[in-house]
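step=predict obj=Bifunctional protein FolD n=353
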Amino acid sequence: MSDTIILKGKEAADLIKDRISQATAKLAQEHNIRPKLAVILVGDNPASEIYVRQKAIQAAAVGVETELFRLDENVDFETLLDLIKRLNADDSINAVILQLPLPLHLKPFTYKAMIAIDSKKDADCFNPKNIGLTFLDRANIVPCTSHGVLQILDQYNVDVLGKHVVIVGASNIVGKPLALELINRNATVTTCNIHTKNIRSITKTADILVVAIGHAKYFDHTYVNKDCIVIDVGINQLQNKSYDPALAQAVKEQGEEALALSFAKANDLTIAEAKEQIHYLTREKFTVGDVDFDDLIGKCAMVTKVPGGVGLLTVANLLHNTLILTLLQKKLNFEDFGLQRRYIRDRQDTSHK
């Protein structure tokens, strides 16, 4: 048996969402306030549609209202900017996010669009003011995905103090803010990018390796040492070469239970085995990370699996940020809602208040 521990984000995400649910219930009961998140979606990117729908479902489950603002695929930047300005000025909106990626013609304006969101409503924590507060370790909100990495480590009692953490990927969304938060926790941080030479010689020295490059299954066991903790932030879609469209249609027509019975009999399988085979053969795509998960099992100390790892915490932190921004706007005391004003470190330090 492998002694590699599989790190899961569900427990930490559930704790965050439970805290949000309790706070929003109290907020509604005592102040008649329900946090509201505005989601801007440009175009009809299928993956973005799924992400937006998932966010709305999870938000509703914890008492956060969402409103979707759709813009046409061919919209110009000025129209997008006007919408952001309108949402900034709308007192009924507590938080705003812009779903990425933008259509090709708007990609050069991504940064301008992100920083146009008011720092007081910046649920993704991309505004320079909020990033600056993260730099100073005085942030009320933090970047959702990068903080999720720390929350998974916290969940499994991994202390980063003095550890060598190697981050592969220096994006504004994950790599850079994560490096800031790790430095604030007194880790020793090395950041790598596409131009880094002899990258294996660096990653193999890592106590903790975090990868976020958007390249499916790029990192195998040759990049790590046996004691390394590997955090996979990548989310990639791969086509299932064994996809059976006829079988998928049969599932729709006959139902899984009925089909599993005949499938099991025809292939000499148990019902459980038949269902597993059907699930595999009727999936057009698979979601995988930047790490070759199967190859790392038995070759490192701990590793996250995709899906089921950091991604679960990204949405939970987005909703947590929405709640925090709402309380700040309404000038309500965090402690009254079971929350702490700062939740990174140094909780005894009140100089920021």
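step=describe
Residues 343-353 have pLDDT under 50 and may be disordered.
step=end
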